[in-house]
Structures are given as C-alpha cells and as structure tokens.
Amino acid sequence: MSRSAQDGSSAQRNFVRDGRFVDETRETGRAGRNPRKRARPSGLYRGCIGRLGVLGLGLLLLGGLAGCLGPVAKAPYARRLGSGLMGSLLGPFDGQVIDQSTGSPLASALVVGTWAFQETGGMATPESSYTETVVTGSDGSYALPSLPTGRQFAGLLRRFTLIVYKAGFVGYRSDLRFDDRSPRHDFVQRGNMVRLDRFPQGESHVRHLVFLGGGPVLRGAAQAEIIQASLELQETAPQLAEEQPAPPSPATTAPPTEPVMNPAAPLAPAGVSLREGS
Length: 278
Description:
The chain is α+β, with helices and mostly antiparallel strands. It contains six helices and nine strands.
C-alpha cells in the first residue's frame, strides 16, 4: 500500500495560508505530518469568514473567493418583463435603444451603469460608487457586465442606475422620467427596451442636463449641449443695474453778509441823500 493510501488523501490536508491553499505534503516534505503551526486565513479571507461565517468558509474551501460579497439591497425592478422574478442590483444588464418616433435602433448611444454603495452602520451615508460605460451597437443593443467581484467589498450596495444619452434626444434614466420626474416602473434588468424621444424645440437644456446628472463620461458626450445650456443661462440671467454716479451734494449757501461800513464816511439821516457840493 502506498504512503498516500496509508495516510489518506493529501487534498484533505490542504489548508489556507495568506489567502491561498497550501499542500501540507509539499510544506513538510512528508505526508501525514502536520506543521507545527497551522496557517490561518489572513487579511481578505478573515474578513470574509467573519462576515459570512460558515458559508464564507465553505466557499473558500470550494475554490477560494476573489471577493467577499457585501450586503445587497432589494432591487426595485424585475429580472425580465412579465417574468415575475425579482431582479438583482449586481447585474448583468442588457437591452436595446430605439427611436420612439420611428422604432429604428439607435447606434452609438452612450449607456452608463452606476452602482452606489453606502455605509452599513449608523447613518445612511454614501460611501462610494462604481461605473461601467458602453455604447450601443448598430442594432441599438447594449450589454453591461455584472458588478466586478473586486468591487463587492464595499458597504451596502444600495442602488443601480442606468443612464442612456444620445445627442438630439431626451435622455433616459432607469429610476426617473424626464417629463414629470415621476418614478419609472418599466425598467427591467434583462431585455430592457429604451425608447428615446427627439429633443423638443424650446426645451431647456439646463433642465435636461440636471435630469441626467453628472459624471466625466457623460459630460464629455454632452459637450455641445453644455454649451447650449451656458448660452441659455446667459440669456435668462437678470441684468445687473448699472451704477449711477452719486448726485452732487447740495451747495451750501453762505448767509448774507452786511455791507462793510467805511468809518471815514459821514452818516446821513434817513431819507436824506448826501450830494456833493450842497
């Protein structure tokens, strides 16, 4: 009988050291003898086991974890239209973007997916976010991957938001409608249909950009509209009143002065004029 048969399978003597599996036979050079000090999961894996308990340990033993899944909030949308199944904030997401008026697919539309996290303890404080960006193909289709495993170490995954932008069209948000800012209820995770309306003449570009939100990728795609919004703000800005010069201060009038009398001149009685030579 071979030594491995006598001492049992070496796979049963594997243990975790510094986040990786270590073969006990290779570590000691002899099968069946345990090292003096067994390695303990450290760093990343200790955090996972502490948060997931037995389940986390079981997942580690099945092949290790590239990341430790944190808490995930309930998704407010369905997996597919009419499926009756709840969607997942983790993803993936796919669908198609079309022109509402013609039904034609819209190629090269910008699709931005953002996962938002918040701290799990105490107040609901935003913690971080992660964004994936794609553009639609010639058939108007888009596909966003699931949240990368390495990003699942953040706090509570609170929400996922999908934004679609195409120049000349009213943008799309998965959570809000543009016309009345009411909540959107027709978004689905898989097979989502995005119908974009042409941007109406006279509509405010400022209002549209505020609806879409920020982000460097979106700002880069909407540069032309940002310029239009700036001009719009300049036209509607109140005119500042020009400064008027201060009115001159009223001149001070000097009180009337009495005539200065010459002490050498003789005083004439009232009503009598002095004439020379009289």
